[in-house]
Design a protein that fits this description.
With 530 residues, the chain is of the alpha+beta class. Helix content is 38%, strand content 20%. The protein contains 19 helices and 19 strands. The strands form 4 sheets. Strands 12, 13, 14, 15, 16, 17, 18 and 19 form an 8-stranded antiparallel β-sheet that branches. A 5-stranded antiparallel β-sheet has the order 5-6-10-8-9. It has a 4-stranded mixed β-sheet with strand order 1-2-4-3, with helices on one face.
Length: 530
């Protein structure tokens, strides 16, 4: 069964190795986990539902608890401590468009707020009900998970929006195709959630972000049905798909999506390379991008992230052999790891590999073969389970991300990490932080920073520490001119910083769209635009 207060299936674990525990102790100090509230304790705090009865709606306390929060660190603090201030009053599980329309009418007549719910993996508060007098109904789309149509000639598939990543890929792979969208939350996140938050999969360099893959679909709104035709291209005015992409449930509920799919590649390889420093690794990555090599992923870690990744990986014998090999090749103290993926036919991959390795060698890079690449691909959807293990060892983990032009990348990394380093100075606590470039473009890159710190016994103190870190890093991002979110969306946590990016007129336009699609303001209030 899925955990109610952590990540993933409760039968899956991610044990910390002895070397990883020593690294954490040395880096931020010994951890002591706070006491977690039990499921029974939290269920006793769920208040009575304020919803009128309806056959589509469950008001079961555990159902409501399991839909009360997402996967952000504040969500974890609330769930683990049992201090959850607001629960949805009920959970509806529609089976199709007719059910969605009935729920929209039901909510409008009764003054009920609706929250669309995909896989519950949001890390910025998209699915959280906010305190207020109005009852809240969460609309869980998990039953709307069918493949409705497959057009092999046009390389298009029509899915219901509640389909989860593994089910979507399984249905496509059975036909020899793939969407190629693999966010870290892949096992639980849904197609509708990817579209509503402008998601980016780990191999977006080759397959594209979700906005490239989303060709059209259907959104049910309080004002009516929006049909988006999947044209190859159109010059008939502004593209209304852009009103759906990133809308975060404010305009309506996406029920169907047409996606562009790719035939399965005959060959796919993941390689790891190491560079003497981050600058040389960045230069190699840019040259690979500009060369036109058919890459599906480039992922460059700073020296601090490389050190942390190797320390937390365990496999001491293998890591020791790697360290000795790299030292002989002149790649030691400030080494940075670059992961790359190649896909295509056998000859294309062979030629691309040769070209990529030649570029890397010209920038001082050393190939470590496929071992670490294979290990990364094997664990990429298991890595989130590490959050459970770290919490249970007394440590909290959070991530933040942005994107900016290449010339501004070094300054952005410096300012974000400086802000994190200073954020908890008054508490006497140490923050360990590390960064990688996870989605690269010819004109710039995303930056993904992780911070790790010790948990206090008081949940309010843990929330205070998170707020200090989040505020400091977000202000640094805005000051440098980066986007407040490259792939996680806005939700609640990023809403205060959105006006700096969109400007007064842009925010007014977003407000106008909300009122056009949702005149009564019942759709996911408080998210995106605050």
């Amino acid at each position: 069964m899925r955990r109610w207060n952590g990540w993933g299936d409760d039968t899956e674990g991610y044990a910390l190795s002895e070397s990883a525990a020593k690294f954490l102790h040395k880096t931020v100090g010994p951890g002591k986990p706070p006491r977690d509230a039990t499921l029974e304790e939290v269920l006793r705090r769920v208040p009575p539902s304020r919803l009128p009865p309806d056959p589509l709606i469950s008001t079961d306390p555990e159902d409501r608890l399991r839909h009360a929060r997402g996967q952000s660190l504040p969500d974890w603090i609330a769930l683990r401590s049992g201090r959850i201030d607001t629960f949805p009053d009920g959970v509806a599980r529609p089976s199709g468009n007719e059910d969605i329309r009935r729920l929209l009418d039901f909510a409008r007549r009764n003054g009920i707020f609706l929250i669309p719910y995909g896989g519950g993996t949001s890390v910025v508060g998209h699915i959280n009900p906010l305190p207020g007098r109005e009852p809240v109904l969460t609309v869980d789309l998990s039953r709307m998970n069918r493949l409705l149509k497959f057009d092999e000639q046009s390389h298009q598939a029509v899915f219901e929006a509640g389909v989860a990543g593994p089910d979507l890929e399984a249905q496509l792979r059975a036909r020899g195709f793939s969407l190629g969208h693999f966010p870290q939350s892949f096992e639980y996140s849904t197609l509708g959630g990817w579209i509503a938050t402008r998601s980016s999969g780990q191999q977006s360099l080759g397959y594209g972000r979700i906005e490239r893959l989303f060709a059209g679909g259907r959104m049910e709104t309080p004002s009516g049905t929006l049909e988006l035709q999947p044209f190859p291209a159109s010059a008939a005015g502004p593209d209304l798909r852009e009103a759906v992409l990133g809308s975060e449930g404010r305009f309506g509920i996406l029920t169907e999506a047409v996606v562009r799919v790719t035939p399965l590649h005959r060959r796919e390889e993941f390689h790891s390379l190491f560079f003497p420093d981050f600058e040389q690794g960045g230069e190699a990555a840019r040259r690979m991008l500009w060369s036109g090599i058919p890459l599906t992923m480039l992922r460059l870690s700073t020296a601090q992230e490389t050190e942390t990744t190797l320390a937390l990986a365990g496999h001491e014998v293998l890591i020791g052999a790697l360290e000795r090999f790299l030292s002989v090749r002149g790649v030691a103290k400030h080494k940075c790891m670059l992961l790359l993926a190649l896909s295509g036919g056998d000859q294309i991959v062979k030629t691309a590999r040769k070209e990529a390795l030649a570029i890397a060698s010209g920038c001082g890079g050393v190939s470590a073969g496929k071992t670490f690449g294979r290990e990364w691909i094997r664990k990429r959807f298991r890595t989130p389970y590490l959050r459970n293990a770290l919490w249970e060892a007394g440590y909290a983990v959070d991530t933040l991300e942005t994107a900016i032009s290449w010339s501004a990348v070094p300054g952005m990394i410096r300012d974000i990490e400086r802000a994190l380093d200073e954020a908890l100075a008054g508490t006497g606590e140490v923050v360990h932080f590390f960064t990688h470039l996870s989605h690269l473009y010819p004109w710039g890159s995303s930056l993904y920073t992780t911070c790790l710190f010790r948990l206090a016994q008081d949940p309010e103190e843990n929330l205070h520490r998170w707020r200090c870190l989040k505020e400091g890093a977000s202000k640094a991002i805005v000051a440098q001119g980066g986007t407040i979110s490259h792939q996680h969306g806005v939700g609640v946590d990023h809403a205060p910083y959105l006006p700096a990016e969109k400007g007064p007129l842009g925010m007014a336009v977003l407000g106008d769209l909300c009122r056009r699609f949702d005149p009564s303001g019942i759709m996911n209030p408080g998210k995106l635009t605050g």
